[in-house]
Amino acid sequence: MRILIRGGTVGTETGSSAADVLIDGETIVALLDPAHTGSFAGLADRSIDATGKYVIPGGIDVHTHLDMPFGGTFSADDFETGTRAAAWGGTTSLIDFAVQPKGSSLRETLDTWHAKAGGKASIDYGFHMIISDVNEQTLKEMDVLVGEGVTSFKMFMAYPGVFYATDGEILQAMERAAGSGATIMMHAENGIAIDVLVAQALASGHTDPGWHGRTRPPELEGEATARAIRLAQVTGAPLYIVHLSAQQALQAVTEARDAGRNVFAETCPQYLYLSQDDLDAPDFEGAKYVCSPPVRPKEHQAHLWRGLRTNDLSIVSTDHCPFCFKEQKELGRGDFSKIPNGMPGIEHRVDLLHQGVVNGELSLARWVEVNSTTPARMFGLYPRKGTIAPGSDADIVVYDPALRHVLSAETHHMAVDYSAYEGREVQGGPAVVMSRGETLVSDGEWHGQAGRGRFLPRGECQYLR
Ligand SMILES: [Zn+2]
Fold it and tell me: 172 CA distance to ligand 1 centroid (A)?
């Protein structure tokens, strides 16, 4: 089956130009000058009209938590609903976090996550591995996983007693990663200090969701980020700071990058658009916005947009970790520390970032880069994913920049009972979404199939120096 996408503006990380895209089976085979497409038109079995639209590489969300166990329940989206919602929003690949339970091996954990995704995912997916139990066996297994295409390992400086790793444990895992070409991903917040602030707040009778933010001050994200950077420097391991939210943390990353280190960071739409004001919403509504690190006072947002422009922030991922307001978020009524941490967002990342283009914060090329190209390069998927070029997978979004729609739980496809962006109007949206040449979404209809998504074994980070 040959498909020709005609009349659109092809957007890549290097810029945009009028070009037609020829797909053969699962692969892009040619970009054609529209003035000369006529002679090739007969080659196509079908054509898609992209007049007035962008033709961009499918989005890649490198930070999701689908079907994630949490306190006897699970995050609200599994691999079927989560990947479908992602595709509706223009995301055609994701990398989810497998979570090592304490006492279990990385091998068993990876097998569990393969079983969760296989037969359910409608887009392609890879895995990162969360290490929560550093010991001889875990360290050895890290090398085995790299061989199987799981080339990134996440650790936590937060959540003592759950995922928390000591500086010594982090150092050991980083040494191992430095030897095998793996990247260490870090949740950088000083969890030991935060737990004291949380206990003090609760003892003083502060139980509302707003206190989730006030007990996790930005200085403690800045401190942990700087400490992670020093540990990485000592070991030589590449470091990727996940969900960076605070100006103090960005400053530490910027300094490290200016010094030429292999230090990278992502932020998420919630930190660009939401703030402590949302956490302070009355009647427990603030619980909808509880995630860690917390959404920050508004003044941090301008710093994050600046970081995205200057490449001190390389990627925007969602940290999609949805919990329903009813029965899940409600576990924390009367005690903010018991509110499940996480927010839904997998469906809206591409559109919310496009508002950055509409508002003049990002160029079109930079939008494509933080949405798709850099995620592919950072996590060893490029050029199979992340660009529109001959030989690349035909993961393509025909994006209509003029479309207007309102984000709402009434219309979204995520299996969660609220939207963090309820009522917000956005400009732009996917008209057609393709994965490996198959149309998943077109003109508001779903054509995808659960189980068609494939596991993506990944190589090492392609930015190392
Ligand atoms: Zn996360």
Answer: 22
3-state secondary structure of 461: coil
How many A from CA of 65 to the centre of ligand 1?
A: 6
Phi, psi dihedrals of residue 368, rounded to the nearest 5°: -60, -40
pTM over 0.90: yes
Cα of 400 vs centre of ligand 1, distance in Å, is 30
Q: How far apart are CA 174 and CA 202, in angstroms?
A: 36
| Confidence (pLDDT) at 41 | 79
Between CA 308 and CA 305 the distance in angstroms is 5
**Which residues, 6 or more positions from 93, have their beta carbon under 8 angstroms from its beta carbon?**
58, 59, 60, 61, 123, 124, 125, 126, 376, 381, 385, 395, 456
Q: How far is the CA of 339 from the centre of ligand 1 (A)?
A: 15
Alpha carbon distance 414, 110 (integer Å):
25
d(C-alpha 103, C-alpha 138), whole Å: 10
Q: CA–CA separation, 355 vs 428, rounded Å? A: 8
Residue 319 CA to ligand 1 center (angstroms) comes to: 5
Q: What is the mean pLDDT of each run of 10 residues along the chain (465 residues)?
A: 96 96 97 89 92 98 96 92 98 98 96 98 98 96 98 98 96 97 97 98 98 98 98 98 98 98 98 98 98 98 98 98 96 96 98 98 98 98 98 98 98 98 98 98 96 98 93
What are 255's two structure tokens? Answer: 């300094």
Q: Collapsing DSSP states into helix, strand and coil, what is residue 21?
A: strand
Cα–ligand 1 centroid distance for 108 (angstroms): 21
Q: Where are the alpha helices (DSSP H) in 262-315?
A: 269-273, 276-279, 300-310
Whole-Å CA distances, 350 to 325, 367, 424, 428, 436: 24, 9, 15, 9, 19
What is the whole-number distance in angstroms between the Cα of residue 158 and the centre of ligand 1? 12
pLDDT at 73: 85
